[in-house]
Amino acid sequence: MSGRNAAPLVLAIAVVLALAACASQPSSSALTLADSKSPVQLLRNEVASRIPEELVQQVVNEDYSEACGADESIRAWHSAIRLELGTDAAAVEQLIDELSASFEADGWIATPGNERLEQKQAVYTRGGTAAEIHLAAEDRAGVGHAVVVSVFGPCVQTDGPDSDEVTSLEGTN
Asked: What whole-number distance in Å separates Cα of residue 139 and Cα of residue 130?
């Protein structure tokens, strides 16, 4: 393995270990949304780094917490990146296949998602971690091609969507 390939792998292992610690905690534990935010963002960035920079025309990040169910005080950190690509649909499909193979080589297990013509998705999980990686390829006529990577952290207890913790982490206070 070359030094160029070793650094992302080491980072991915560190992030998975950090999220594994989160997974072992019940939502009522002392784990906070702030504890999961950085590992989730790092995992999103590591996944995005697997896409060759020369293919990327535009990058859009999105970070926020979302309710894990009807009780909005139990929340998970969601970190996403949309990479608009300057390539054709066949190249995007090949890129998705390569990303999928790299996730599986790292121990992630794929669950097929939406297979509509304009968007192909898969959800990746890994034993010992509460994180989920959602990978989608979009091919929309007139809009272009993109890869969307979304990472979800563990569900944790908060004081709700309008609490100081949540609004501070989301930058909405």
From this structure: 30
CATH class of 3-170: alpha beta
Span 112-145, pLDDT tens digits: 665 543 456 788 888 888 889 988 888 766 667 8
Domain ranges of the chain: 3-170
